[in-house]
Design brief:
The chain is an alpha/beta fold. It has twelve helices and 14 strands. The structure holds S-adenosyl-L-homocysteine and iron/sulfur cluster.
């Protein structure tokens, strides 16, 4: 029998699985607590389980789904984790301490099929979806690696891949991560960033309403379609209608991410068009000065141009933040994540 990756299961699925191997249902809750609340490193540590059951777990399951290959720490405290998957492919997660918060940015796919023109992950193409276990284990194993006293407060699906293109695994991983018997991350502490897969966005709102970030990056269809081919499938009118319908917790807003590319989308008139597009939407805007990588055709605008763009949005009564680029010295900033083989 193949060994199962135990972190692929939600608590409910784990109950079905323990019954399928002839154990009592309540064992699932015990296992779940060991795996996610206590975060044991081996079944031996689970002394409330019989020796027989521990041996069965040892030979029948994989507790770890990914293996830490390398950690790099940036001058600003950001850490980039490189993980090896069971088939030898690699993905990255980025830990961003920003007291009192500490955010972990996780990956949902190896590569990405959506091919946005400003994104290194897009440039490497799509390799495969991550499994639930591979997503969840980025969080578990980063927790093992934290300094004592620190803890992860927020999770963002903003690493490699388009999370809504791997919908089922992402939603099930959120179920595992938010389970009160385990790591108990509240949905309010989890943010999913999407390039705008509209049908899945509507499902997400109904099935797993986490915070939403939309990669906007252009104020009109013409420009957005050249930068983000997905816009041809789901143009702005459709995307904005889905945003208006997305269920938001009280006082929550949708974050609209906007990369600033010099001379392409950073003119003050374009800021006014962005404001027009967001009228009536509970929105805040996150400006991300483009993070360059070798071979990319775009340039990061000067601080003066970034401020001028921000000013124009502020004048239109929008809440705007400029995302400080973290970890750029170790290629951990937004859009700089790619598998090793793709050119680090
Ligand atoms: N696929 C999802 C989530 C991963 S990308 C999405 O596109 O939203 C996370 C964020 O980084 C997105 O807003 C993305 O547009 C942005 N990004 C990609 N490449 C970048 C770059 N070179 N510089 C700055 N931000 C970039
Ligand atoms: Fe994929 Fe997001 Fe990169 Fe676009 S920006 S290619 S959707 S990871």
């Amino acid at each position: 029998m193949d060994r199962v990756f135990i972190k692929n299961y939600t608590l409910k699925e784990l109950e079905a699985w323990v019954e399928s191997i002839g154990e009592r249902r309540f064992r699932a809750r015990q296992l779940f607590c060991h795996i996610y609340a206590r975060r044991v490193r081996s079944w031996e540590e689970c002394s409330d389980l019989s020796k027989m059951f521990r041996v069965q777990m040892e030979y029948g399951t994989h507790l770890d789904a990914i293996r830490l290959m390398e950690v790099r720490e940036s001058g600003d405290g950001t850490r980039k984790y490189l993980w090896e998957l069971p088939d030898g492919l690699t993905v990255e997660s980025v830990l961003i301490p920003d007291a009192p918060r500490c955010t972990l940015c996780i990956s949902s796919q190896v590569g990405c099929a959506l091919g946005c023109k400003f994104c290194l992950t897009g440039a490497m193409g799509f390799k495969r979806d991550l499994t639930v276990a591979e997503i969840v284990d980025q969080v578990c194993q980063t927790m093992h690696h934290l300094d004592s006293g620190s803890r992860i407060t927020n999770l963002v699906f903003m690493g490699m891949g388009e999370p809504l293109a791997n919908y089922d695994a992402v939603v099930r991983s959120i179920q595992v991560l938010s389970d009160p018997e385990g790591m108990a991350f509240s949905h309010r502490k989890i943010t999913l960033s999407t390039a705008g897969l509209v049908p899945q966005l509507a499902r997400l709102g109904k099935e797993s309403p986490v915070n939403l970030a939309i990669s906007l990056h252009a104020p009109n269809d013409e420009l957005r379609s050249t930068l983000m081919p997905v816009n041809r499938r789901h143009p702005l009118a459709e995307l904005m209608a889905a945003c208006r319908k997305y269920p938001l917790a009280p006082r929550k807003r949708i974050t609209f991410e906007y990369i600033l590319l010099e001379g392409v989308n950073d003119e003050p008139e374009q800021a006014r068009d962005v404001a027009g597009l967001l009228r009536g939407v509970k929105a805040k805007v996150n400006l991300i000065p483009f993070n360059p990588y070798p071979g990319s055709p775009f340039k990061q605008p000067s601080e003066r141009r970034v401020s001028a763009f921000q000013e124009a949005l502020l004048r239109a009564q929008l809440t705007v933040m400029v995302r400080q680029s973290r970890g750029a010295d170790i290629s951990a900033a937004c859009g700089q994540l790619a598998a090793r083989a793709a050119g680090e």
